[in-house]
Amino acid sequence: MKNVSQHVLHPLSVIGWRECISLPELGLNDFAIKVDTGAKTTALHAEDITVFHKEGVKWVRFRPPAMHGSVQQICEFPVFTKRDITNTSGTPETRIVIRTALILAGRKWKIDISLTDRGTMRFPLILGRRALRNKNIVVHPSQSYLVSDKPSFEGSKL
């Protein structure tokens, strides 16, 4: 058996299959997400995804979901990579991936997020297992909001 105690930076955190997170660089704070350990990559609902060049570097412009009646903003990020990802229907598609900060359970770290149309989904973001890897986090499959307050409104019609 592996001795993991020397690699543990944080105590074990147990999160629910639904939690609230923040993506401060996108201006998205305390919104409900679905934790999906069956998904490798985190996916965020985005509209009007456009790739452009800025000083010789590929960037992406998109509109993330508006939260609770706020005005939908436009975000611009450097393109971290493009990745072939199998969507919820089982169809492979190439997606733009950005790298940005996530806040969950009082901790902050960078994650990769693929941009896609999740407008018909209940949650604007699914948090994939790569975002949780090496963070000493486990998911309780029958519990929700173990490390965050339950939002007053949950769902894709934010």
Question: Which terms summarize this structure?
Answer:
158 residues, 3-stranded antiparallel beta sheet, mainly beta, Cathepsin D, subunit A, domain 1, globular, disordered N terminus, 12 strands, 3% helix, 7-stranded mixed beta sheet
Please, could you describe this protein's structure?
- 3% of the residues lie in helices and 50% in strands.
- Mean pLDDT is 89; it is low at 1-6.
- The chain has one helix and twelve strands; from the N terminus they run βββββββββββαβ.
- The strands form three sheets. The chain has a seven-stranded mixed beta sheet.
- It is an all-beta fold and 158 residues long.
- The longest helix is centred in the C-terminal third of the chain and has 4 residues, at 129-132.
Question: In terms of topology, how is this protein built?
Answer:
Blueprint: E1 13-16, E2 18-23, E3 28-36, E4 42-45, E5 47-54, E6 57-63, E7 75-78, E8 81-86, E9 92-104, E10 107-116, E11 125-128, H1 129-132, E12 137-140
Parallel strand pairs: 1-12, 3-11, 4-10
Antiparallel strand pairs: 2-3, 4-11, 5-6, 6-7, 8-9, 9-10
Query: What is the overall silhouette?
Result: globular
Helix content: under 10%
Average pLDDT score: 89
What is the name of the CATH topology?
A: Cathepsin D, subunit A, domain 1
Q: Which class do the helix and strand fractions yield?
A: mainly beta
Termini separation comes to: 45 Å
Q: Give the name of the CATH architecture.
A: Beta Barrel
Provide the CATH top-level class. Answer: Mainly Beta
Number of domains: 1
Order of SSEs, N→C? EEEEEEEEEEEHE
Q: Using only CA atoms, what is the Rg?
A: 16 Å
Oligomeric composition of the shown chains: single chain
What spatial order of strands do you see in the largest sheet?
2-3-11-4-10-9-8
Uncertain residue ranges: 1-6
Could you give me the name of the CATH homologous superfamily? Acid Proteases
Number of strands: 12
Strand content: over 45%
For the largest beta-sheet, the strand count, sense and barrel status come to:
7 strands, mixed
Put simply, the count of helices is 1
